[in-house]
Amino acid sequence: MGALQSLPGQPEHIDLAEKTGFSLEQIGVLHKRFRQLSHNEETLRRDHFNEIPDLACNPIRAQIIEAFFDKRNYRQNGEGTVEEISFEDFLVVMSHFRPPSVHMTEEQRESVRREKLRFLFNMHDTDNDGTITLEEYRHVVEELLSRSGALGKETAKGIADAAMLEVASISVGHMEPDEFYEGITFEHFLKLLNGFEIESRMNIRFLNMDTTTLCK
Amino acid sequence: MPSRTGSHSPTGFGRGLPERGLLLLAVLVLLEGSVLPLGAASSPDISHQANSDSHKKADGGHNITKKAFPVLSLDYQHIHIPFEISLWVLLASLMKLGFHMIPRLSSIVPESCLLIVVGLLVGGLIKLAGEKVPPVLNTQLFFLILLPPIILDAGYFLPIRPFMENLGTILMFAVVGTLWNAFFIGGLLYAVTQIQPANPSDLHSLELLPCLLFGAIISAVDPVAVLAVFEEIHINELLHILVFGESLLNDAVTVVLYHLFEEFSSEGTVTVMDGFLGLISFLVVALGGVLVGAIYGILAAFTSRFTSHMRVIEPLFVFVYSYMAYLSSELFHLSGIMALIACGAVMRPYVEANISHKSHTTIKYFLKMWSSVSETLIFIFLGVVTVDGPHSWNWTFVVVTVILCLVARVIGVIGLTFVINKFRIVKLTTKDQFIIAYGGLRGAIAFSLGFLLEKNHFPKREMFLTAIITVIFFTVFVQGMTIKPLVELLAVKKKQEAKRSINEEIHTQFLDHLLTGIEDICGHYGHHHWKDKLNRFNKKYVKKCLIAGERSKEPQLIAFYHKMEMKQAIELVESGGGAKLPSSMPSTVSMQNIQPKKPPPAKSADRTLLQIPKGREEEIRKILRSNLQRTRQRLHSYNRHTLVADPYEDGFSDIIKKRRLMELEKKIKEMSNYLTVPAAASDSPTMHRARLSSGRDTDFKPAQQQKGNKSCPDPQSYGVKPATDNVPTIQVDLASPQSPDSVNVMDEFGRGDQEEDQGLMMKPPSGHKKPGEAEGAREQQKLTRCLSDPGPGGDEDEDEPFLP
């Protein structure tokens, strides 16, 4: 802890701490990691992410990386994608994975839930139109099954179709045969994952100690 | 004996149900109470006399001087041990039945309390009859026969995911918590016994080590009691797994402490070296137990890979390997409970991938049955031995023990939570802590351990036993009865009854990968990373070894999907053959609503799907064929002797294919819900078959699927096709290979049915309408075992994939 505190006067960090809710030590650690990933440049690009070896075997790697460059996740109500991100953007995206603190009112907890689910929604909704269409959902399932090889596309289609049907049944209920379910809106998405307890599941432990020297 | 029951039961019939239940209860208790003394007597004279009293037909042959040929003779000695055992088991089971017939009682008082009361009554009756109470809760019987089924049941159905996620917390509570309890209670008890120098009571002779030993015995939370009580209160998964996991894992600590203190108290001195050895011993006991269990688990999984030709003995392997694991670890004084848990948890995902559906159901039912009977017996015996004694009541000791237990538990939980919360992402709230503290029930394990103590080393043995029994009674009665209203009062989160949907499963997997990815980006190896590594190792090497055939490559999501399909199919048939839509899909949304509109917009969605290009037919056929084989591998061969080759095997796939293709064109026009079926004409022959087939195996519910009925296993009905429109149809999606799968499932079972009920299919359908419906209705009222019927409807636990 002593070593980290020797970082003199990083007023941006204090700003960031307030903005994102991380502690100063955590910001310090993440900053080090940022610099390590970007080879000491000021911004990160996609190919920097592609260099992380552990990420290579992740089936949804592409979506994860995209999420960092998606302006909708920067909490500024922006849209579209960028090509490179600053440390602040990096931190803001990471802050989606902070656990809710113990003393939170119901409202705050609800807003944390919405935020996390919004992040997931943005990951699925790749064309930014506010709904997850069948094609996009199929793509999600395909990616998930992409490591399993043989069964591939057909099964993914079936599963995605079943899932969409479920969403439609839960959200809309009754539809005439010639009506058409456009896609999953954010509200439907919320309703769908109502029992999922995302605020306790979608968290990772941000360390206060610097372990970046141990990992690549 | 038959005469006695005969005279009592008719009187009960005229009254209402609760009264009848009470009467039945009274009769049963009286009956068992009076018969058991007859059995308890070991000398042949007494038994001979007693039996000759109750039997009208006197063994007259013995009274006549000339030895006539004994037409009817009695030989109780010959059978008395199995007879008594069966009588006890019968008593236990009838008690359980009786309790559930009295509805209000079972909701106020937990079953465990009622059973103890019954045990008290029976014990009292036996004592009144002047007979010696059989030593029912002797340690051999308890630890080797009664305890393993319960633990195996718990371990096999242990929800792995929440268990692993909270493992750190559970271990803290189990190890540190139990140690704290043991030393706190033991130490303070010793202090209390020494504080009255003025009037020296016989407590003064109590030394430190026996006190510590007593503390060790009494401090362990008991899995049997926890299971019995918690099962009825349905609290949320986290709390359940915390308390339950603690009760399982603290066995290692208890074993070590017990042996340690027992050794030391005979020697008299303790050195630092001994303490150090104790620590090593703990690690050996715990890890050794887990290792032994894991080895047997892997053996069982490996064996199950080859059982495809001998499905009938599959459940036996599961049971025997697990029991061997338990016994092997008991051989080395390792922790048997941890071995059983490890064995069950390790073998389950692989065994379930290998065995047939029916074996799976068998295992489930047998485990639930045995553990249920065991638990009932344990509580009854607790009551019996309470009456038996010998007791040595010492007000100070007992009261102080009870108070100390409570206080130690509360302090321990609060203190530990304070430390644990620093490391947890989802902190434990005060409410959680209260429930954890309050759920620390003691039970029969403590008593059995106390019973094991030798009298010459522990002169105060009876006092200990009395105190233990008092604590058990207190926790089970007071805490057991009040925990339910407290849970309501504190508005503790209850178990979510929602079924796992495919969306949740997709997102669970998605989230796992996402979090692993973020951890990698952050640059530290958190537990998601290790979990992912383990999963990959599992998939790459372990699954290939232990799972037979193609299923080793089946990813989690797909396995889950298949399971869900089966479940829905079973549900469909149970709900009366599709006459009403299952409640899970109350909407009329169908696949057509989902398919995206294809350009040009002038065409409606339906017509687009009508076109099956020729090229696709080949594809479909290939997919169907491959899926047929896959499912057959999984579900085939129900018959005991696989000598008889499947007569229709070769022609079968062709029939299926043809039928599928013809149906596909028809179905496309019709409205069909995915996996749900619109109301069909209830007298269509296919509906009959569905009901028949589902009704046949009332206990083992085969995965009959409504929609597959067209290709029922009777090839002779091939030509029969209902001309009506609202015929059970399958889902439209051409690309999905799942529906043929599920169809095949039904066919396989229909096949099994056909072979066992010869001529089932030959009968005209119309005659069977009523029995089919009646049986369908009967299936709705299922008896619940402690409110949980492990039928396919209530098996949320099973859906847990292994380390997903």
TrEMBL record, chain A:
<keyword id="KW-1003">Cell membrane</keyword>
<keyword id="KW-0472">Membrane</keyword>
<dbReference type="InterPro" id="IPR052490">
    <property type="entry name" value="CHP3"/>
</dbReference>
<keyword id="KW-0966">Cell projection</keyword>
<keyword id="KW-0221">Differentiation</keyword>
<keyword id="KW-0479">Metal-binding</keyword>
<dbReference type="GO" id="GO:0030027">
    <property type="term" value="C:lamellipodium"/>
</dbReference>
<dbReference type="GO" id="GO:0005737">
    <property type="term" value="C:cytoplasm"/>
</dbReference>
<dbReference type="GO" id="GO:0030154">
    <property type="term" value="P:cell differentiation"/>
</dbReference>
<keyword id="KW-0649">Protein kinase inhibitor</keyword>
<dbReference type="GO" id="GO:0032587">
    <property type="term" value="C:ruffle membrane"/>
</dbReference>
<dbReference type="GO" id="GO:0005634">
    <property type="term" value="C:nucleus"/>
</dbReference>
<keyword id="KW-0539">Nucleus</keyword>
<keyword id="KW-0449">Lipoprotein</keyword>
<dbReference type="InterPro" id="IPR011992">
    <property type="entry name" value="EF-hand-dom_pair"/>
</dbReference>
<feature type="domain" description="EF-hand">
    <location>
        <begin position="112"/>
        <end position="147"/>
    </location>
</feature>
<keyword id="KW-0106">Calcium</keyword>
<dbReference type="InterPro" id="IPR018247">
    <property type="entry name" value="EF_Hand_1_Ca_BS"/>
</dbReference>
<protein>
    <recommendedName>
        <fullName>Calcineurin B homologous protein 3</fullName>
    </recommendedName>
</protein>
<dbReference type="GO" id="GO:0005509">
    <property type="term" value="F:calcium ion binding"/>
</dbReference>
<dbReference type="GO" id="GO:0004860">
    <property type="term" value="F:protein kinase inhibitor activity"/>
</dbReference>
<dbReference type="Pfam" id="PF00036">
    <property type="entry name" value="EF-hand_1"/>
</dbReference>
From TrEMBL, chain B:
<feature type="transmembrane region" description="Helical">
    <location>
        <begin position="464"/>
        <end position="487"/>
    </location>
</feature>
<keyword id="KW-0597">Phosphoprotein</keyword>
<feature type="compositionally biased region" description="Acidic residues">
    <location>
        <begin position="794"/>
        <end position="804"/>
    </location>
</feature>
<dbReference type="InterPro" id="IPR004709">
    <property type="entry name" value="NaH_exchanger"/>
</dbReference>
<dbReference type="GO" id="GO:0005516">
    <property type="term" value="F:calmodulin binding"/>
</dbReference>
<dbReference type="GO" id="GO:0015386">
    <property type="term" value="F:potassium:proton antiporter activity"/>
</dbReference>
<feature type="compositionally biased region" description="Polar residues">
    <location>
        <begin position="584"/>
        <end position="595"/>
    </location>
</feature>
<dbReference type="InterPro" id="IPR032103">
    <property type="entry name" value="NHE_CaM-bd"/>
</dbReference>
<keyword id="KW-0915">Sodium</keyword>
<feature type="region of interest" description="Disordered">
    <location>
        <begin position="581"/>
        <end position="605"/>
    </location>
</feature>
<feature type="transmembrane region" description="Helical">
    <location>
        <begin position="363"/>
        <end position="385"/>
    </location>
</feature>
<keyword id="KW-0564">Palmitate</keyword>
<dbReference type="GO" id="GO:0015385">
    <property type="term" value="F:sodium:proton antiporter activity"/>
</dbReference>
<feature type="transmembrane region" description="Helical">
    <location>
        <begin position="111"/>
        <end position="129"/>
    </location>
</feature>
<dbReference type="GO" id="GO:0016323">
    <property type="term" value="C:basolateral plasma membrane"/>
</dbReference>
<dbReference type="InterPro" id="IPR006153">
    <property type="entry name" value="Cation/H_exchanger_TM"/>
</dbReference>
<dbReference type="InterPro" id="IPR018422">
    <property type="entry name" value="Cation/H_exchanger_CPA1"/>
</dbReference>
<feature type="transmembrane region" description="Helical">
    <location>
        <begin position="276"/>
        <end position="302"/>
    </location>
</feature>
<feature type="transmembrane region" description="Helical">
    <location>
        <begin position="141"/>
        <end position="158"/>
    </location>
</feature>
<keyword id="KW-0472">Membrane</keyword>
<keyword id="KW-1133">Transmembrane helix</keyword>
<keyword id="KW-0739">Sodium transport</keyword>
